[in-house]
Each structure stands twice: as structure tokens, then as C-alpha cells.
Amino acid sequence: MTGKARFTDISPERLAALLQDDASLFILDVREPFELAAFGAVPGVMNIPLKQLPGRLEELPRDPSSAIAVVCQTGNRSVDAARYLSKMGFTQVYNLAGGTFAWSIAGQPLQHAQGVRKAK
Predict the structure, then answer these.
(1) CA-to-CA distance for 120 and 107, rounded, in angstroms?
(2) 77 belongs to a structural domain
(3) Which of 11, 16, 110, 118 is deepest in the core (most CB within 10 A)?
(4) Which helix (H) or strand (E) holds 12?
(5) pLDDT by residue for the chain (120 residues), tens digit each?
(6) Is 2 a domain residue?
(7) CA distances from 62 to 55, 57, 104 (A)
């Protein structure tokens, strides 16, 4: 691992604005697949469960300066994932504070399993 863990907590509104401004923003959902199916997900997410993340880093953007927003259901697991990614050298890591629960409460759209990008 390299560097000190640095990431930024962002609100659902800020994530929505980032998604509008940056089509290359990588959105990583670290919940288990059944949670995405049951509760929905931020549109365009890549699902890699938190416990699988260390073994699946090759599925993330190759450029460590790429922006990555990490989400989960309430914002707890995504903090762990954001911390891990920043320690692995990613320099633009965001954590969705409050997770998809806060995203939904803020009136942002959720997609269901058919729209979630499947990882390898």
C-alpha cells in the first residue's frame, strides 16, 4: 500500500452534479449483489463487494488519478473501501455519505439489476 488514506465524503446532490459534469466518473458499489437487486443502485455503478475488492483491483480504472465514487447502502462499507482505494494510490476518491439510502431520500433515481454493470 502507498500513501496516506485520503478521500472526500460527498452528499447525494454533489454526486449527482459530478455525474452530470464528468461522464468518466467511475461509480463503485461495494454491497453484495442481492442488496443491489433488493434496494436498487445509483445508475451506472460497477458492483464489486467490499470483501472481494482487494482481489479485483484490475477491474478499476488503470489511471490512479481517475475519479472514483464509492457507495454502499448507508455509507459505512464505502468508507472502508474509499480508505482502501486511497491507500492503494487512487487520488480522487469520493464516498457517498449516507449511501444509497441518502441518495434515495434526496430524490435521486435508483436503477435495478438490469442496469447494473456486471464485473468479471
Answers:
(1) 31
(2) yes
(3) 16
(4) helix 12-21
(5) 445 668 999 999 999 999 999 888 999 999 999 999 999 999 999 999 999 999 999 999 999 999 999 999 999 999 999 999 999 999 999 999 999 999 999 999 999 765 455 444
(6) no
(7) 15, 9, 30
Note down the domain range covering 78: 12-115
The 10 Å Cβ neighbour count of residue 114 is: 6
Domain count, the chain: 1
Half-sphere exposure of 60 (CA within 13 A, CB side): 30
- Three cell numbers at 42? 445509483
What is the C-alpha to C-alpha distance for residues 32 and 27, in angstroms, rounded to an integer? 15
pTM equals 0.89
Nearest residue to 6 via CA among 120, 99, 93: 93
Would 120 be classed as within a structural domain?
no
Residue 3 placed within a domain: no
